[in-house]
Write a structure and sequence with these properties.
Layout (H helix, E strand, L loop, with lengths): L4 E5 L12 E3 L11 E5 L5 E7 L3 E6 L18 E5 L2 H13 L12 H4 L2 E7 L2 E7 L1 E7 L23 E5 L2 E7 L4 H7 L5 E10 L2 E12 L5 E6 L5 E5 L5 H21 L3
Antiparallel strand pairs: 1-6, 2-3, 3-4, 4-9, 5-8, 6-7, 7-8, 10-11, 11-12, 12-13, 13-14, 14-15
Length: 268
């Protein structure tokens, strides 16, 4: 196996280089604070790192990073790293593939752990936090974010509580929401985690629940690609460009037809 190598990740938040972070692993089912890293920033604010498709967590004592790093080339203000050729990530992939296979939690495709998940290291004073996840996002606030909901504009938040548009087919109606953030900003943000372009909710019996999402990610060459994903995050179709409503309508209309015919047989 190739040697592990660290790549720098720079974000507009710099962790305090003396104070220790608070690392919390919690369950939303028990209404616990969101799993994440809570810390003080260098400019006396409060920061929070949260994770997309969180898989694993390690917290270790030590002044030095666990992987060799050329400090002579270090850039000031960088405290987050991505591990290339991670042995830990490979171990986690092998475990998931062996024990879960097609029942893999995040969309059913365990192979995406090798292509889209990362091993991150967050470096603090005398300790470091290691996480395996698909991505992460960062927040900053004047007061601690521990126990607080995600802030407005967080990429992990659904848009389904805001104003929506509609289109109809086969006697059914889809609600949809569009992310108003400029595409250039979303592409820049996609280096950290998946960005939501659109959400779709089919109306049935007066209720509507988001069942499809159009997402934006970066491929291995750092080019923007989009995916129409189902309710569990499984990719229904991928586009090599920035897809829009007209691109995904044929797939959604096909789904609407299937639902219509199924409900007709059930006499609904």
């Amino acid at each position: 196996m190739k040697p592990e190598k660290l790549h720098r990740i720079k974000i507009p938040l710099i962790a305090d280089n003396v104070l220790s972070p608070q690392v919390h692993y919690g369950s939303g089912y028990h209404k616990e604070p969101i799993t994440g890293i809570y810390f003080n920033t260098k400019d006396d604010f409060f920061g929070r790192i949260t994770f997309e498709n969180f898989d694993s967590l390690k917290v270790c004592r030590g002044e030095m990073l666990p992987i060799d790093y050329d400090w002579g080339t270090h850039e000031r203000g960088v405290w987050i790293f991505k591990v290339e050729n991670s042995r830990w990530l490979l171990e986690r992939y092998q475990y998931e593939k062996k024990h879960y296979g097609d029942a893999y939690e995040f969309g059913g495709d365990v192979e995406e752990m090798k292509t889209h998940f990362n091993h991150y290291i967050f470096s603090f004073h005398d300790q470091f936090v290691e996480v395996i996840a698909r991505g992460f996002w960062f927040e900053k606030n004047e007061e601690t974010l521990f126990g607080q909901p995600l802030q407005t504009g967080h990429p992990f938040l659904s848009m389904a509580n805001s104003q929506f548009f509609t289109f109809e087919a086969h006697g059914l109606q889809y609600r949809y929401w569009i992310n108003e953030t400029p595409i250039a900003d979303l592409i820049n943000q996609a280096q950290f985690c998946t960005q939501i372009l659109m959400e779709f909710a089919l109306e049935l019996d007066g209720n509507a629940r988001v069942d499809h999402t159009l997402t934006l990610t970066l491929d291995e060459e750092e080019k923007a690609v989009t995916h129409l994903c189902g309710y569990f995050g499984n990719k229904k179709v991928s586009f090599s460009t920035i897809a829009d409503l007209e691109d995904v309508k044929p797939y959604l209309k096909k789904h609407m037809k299937e639902v219509f015919e199924r409900r007709l047989k059930m006499k609904k």
